[in-house]
C-alpha cells in the first residue's frame, strides 16, 4: 500500500475487539445454535462453493470463526482462519477446542499475509462485510493470490457496491446516501453506538464508537482480481441481503434479508468465483 492507513486500522481493530463480546451473545450470530450443530453459513455460499471434502481452505477476515468451523465440521474442509482482532481469534480458538473441530487461527491484517502465511490453499474464502474495511484492493487481491495453489479457487460473497449506497436513516423510502466509490483512498468515518448484530440498539453500547470504511465499485473489485492473475469464473448479483440494510427489511427463514413492503429491484449482495491458473 502506498498510503499509511495504520491509524484507521488501529481504530477499527479496537472496535472489533470490543464487538466480539457482544456478538457471541447476539441472536444474529446464534452461537448456542451453532454449538448444537446449526450451520452459520447462508444459502448463497452453500450453493456456490462446493466439493470441499479434504480441501485446504483459508478464511480471510473470519471474525470469531463460526463460518470457518462450519466449513470444517459440515463440509470436511481443512481450515485456517485469519482476522486482525485478537479477541476474535482467541474466541475462535476456544470454539475450535470446545467443539473439537480441528482448525488453525491466525491473528493478522490481510495486508500482512505475504509475511505471515507461507502455505498455499485449495480454496480462499471471504464473506459478508469484508471489503468495506480494506482501502487497497490491489494489495488485497495480491494477498489472495499469494495464498492460492495453482488451480485453486477464490470465492467471495459480500455487500454489493449498490447496496453499500443505501441510506438506512429513512424508513419511508429507499434512497441513496453514500458514495459508490471512495476517492483517493480517503475513508468514510462513522460514529456508531451499536452494531449490525443488534440493529435496534437495545443491548449494545460500545466504548469504541469510531470506525473507518472504504467504498469500492464493482469494476474496482473485479479488476483487482484480474490484475492479480486470477481468472473470473462467475459473478452473481442478488436482491437479498445478509443483514438489515434498511428499516423495511425482514429476515427470511433461510437467514437472508429482504424488503417487506417496498420492492426495489436493486442488488444487495454479489458473489464471485475466480481461479488461479
TrEMBL record:
CDD domains associated with the record: AdoMet_MTases
Entries under SUPFAM superfamilies matching the protein: S-adenosyl-L-methionine-dependent methyltransferases (SSF53335)
PANTHER family: TRANS-ACONITATE 2-METHYLTRANSFERASE, TRANS-ACONITATE 2-METHYLTRANSFERASE-RELATED
Name of protein: Methyltransferase type 11 domain-containing protein
Coiled-coil intervals, chain numbering: none
Protein species of origin: Candidatus Lokiarchaeum ossiferum
Domain Methyltransferase type: 61-156
Entry's transmembrane regions: none
Signal peptide, first to last residue: none
